[in-house]
């Protein structure tokens, strides 16, 4: 199982309605990106972090493991802002780039934490079937749900193949590594289409008519949670804009 | 190469979303029509999407010492055609954002444009052109996968440069800056992906020729071996 998905099933906000969590996390995400980074990113990022570590019950270690890779992109992508090219000398240090790079890194970090707030509290199995209510065609949500279900089976297959290859010294040299990885790719291709064909036969025997009906667990919407979310978002927007006015 | 969550300014995020939308809607309409005509194809599309996701999660050795991942867009476009890849790629990128925190929701439009539209179209165009010019399946697959990957990387560099132009030389200078900093990993990765895709196609032509024939990649059983020998 993927780490974020496992947390999404085991966190304290798991029973909450996906719409509530989407409003909170995606509202914070929108604010993190749209508001001026200072102090908007600080407010949205710290709020998301507090909600993750507090009410949602996600650990700091889990958050760090999730942000490591994208953080690498953000830091690497901030470096070009610190230099200017095309002048004399051709490549020169750009002092005005430091605040831009800091703002960029701050905004991206805050947005990343908001994304994690959604990803670690809401399993896709809860949110995908409900996408039809916001206008996504049922055929598309069903394909997405099928992909979601098959991904874990194929990842398990790829892992099993990889372990077997490692046991046979399949990753000894670059040449054997490439052959081994190609073997994994071939195996998941064959298993993916084999599974689809078996699923098709199984559904046909059960009178498949074109619609994959799945039971969506009922989850009540909490008006208090929605009101608190709207209040929190309004407070963040107000404080950020007032702080900008004071700074100017 | 995924643009991380929150990396793009809001106007750029919206603009890339708007630029990607027609392609994704086109792909979605094609898929909905295909499913209406043939309900069983839904399961094969699910398999294709899951394959693309897991293919992009395979670990490749990297020249920088760590490991990197293939994009899978070139191979996906050759197998499933670019319009379908626009939709499948969007779903896969959405999953990568929410299951792995790779990419993001505000940068989804930009990532879709580079990885699910530009990359697949370049890969498919190169594949068809190479075949029409008389090239064999193996060179066509290698060029499609490698150039599809490079196209993704180039479009991403342009997206970043448009968002953060250089104070002296503008967008052109910024393309050079972003392009060179990511070239260290992306150019070797493109070559790696080309080689890996060739190995996968050779393997599949032996173990699953019927599926490749059905997808239109090969015309008869085991042509790769024949072409390689020839």
UniProtKB/TrEMBL annotation, chain A:
Membrane-crossing segments per the record: 44-64, 71-92, 104-125, 225-247
Entry-linked Pfam families: CbiQ
Keyword Transmembrane among record annotations: yes
CDD domains: EcfT (cd16914)
Membrane topology summary: Multi-pass membrane protein
Any single GO CC term annotated in Swiss-Prot or TrEMBL for this entry: ATP-binding cassette (ABC) transporter complex
Keywords carried by this UniProt record: Cell membrane, Membrane, Transmembrane, Transmembrane helix
Subcellular location(s) per record: Cell membrane
Superkingdom in the source lineage: Bacteria
InterPro entries: ABC/ECF_trnsptr_transmembrane, Cobalt_transport_CbiQ, ECF_CbiQ
Any one biological process term the GO annotation gives: cobalt ion transport
PANTHER family: COBALT TRANSPORT PROTEIN CBIQ (PTHR43723)
Record-given protein name: Cobalt ECF transporter T component CbiQ
Automatic annotation (TrEMBL), chain B:
Any one GO molecular-function label of the UniProt entry: cobalt ion transmembrane transporter activity
Annotated coiled-coil segments of the chain: none
GO biological process per UniProt: cobalamin biosynthetic process
Locations listed in the record: Cell inner membrane; Cell membrane
Species of provenance: Pseudonocardia sulfidoxydans NBRC 16205
Assembly, per entry: Forms an energy-coupling factor (ECF) transporter complex composed of an ATP-binding protein (A component, CbiO), a transmembrane protein (T component, CbiQ) and 2 possible substrate-capture proteins (S components, CbiM and CbiN) of unknown stoichimetry.
Pathway entry: Cofactor biosynthesis; adenosylcobalamin biosynthesis
Name of the protein: Cobalt transport protein CbiM
Reported function: Part of the energy-coupling factor (ECF) transporter complex CbiMNOQ involved in cobalt import.
GO cellular component terms listed in the entry, alphabetical order: ATP-binding cassette (ABC) transporter complex
Similarity comment: family membership: Belongs to the CbiM family.
Domain of life of the native organism: Bacteria
Alphabetized NCBIfam families for the sequence: cbiM (TIGR00123), PRK08319.1 (NF006184)
Phylogenetic classification of the source organism: Bacteria, Bacillati, Actinomycetota, Actinomycetes, Pseudonocardiales
Spans through the membrane: 13-31, 43-60, 80-101, 108-130, 136-155
Keywords associated with the record: Cell membrane, Cobalamin biosynthesis, Cobalt, Cobalt transport, Ion transport, Membrane, Transmembrane, Transmembrane helix, Transport
Principal subcellular localization: membrane
Gene3D superfamilies cross-referenced by the UniProt entry: 1.10.1760.20
Membrane topology of this protein: Multi-pass membrane protein
UniProt xrefs under Pfam families: CbiM (PF01891)
Keyword Manganese applies: no
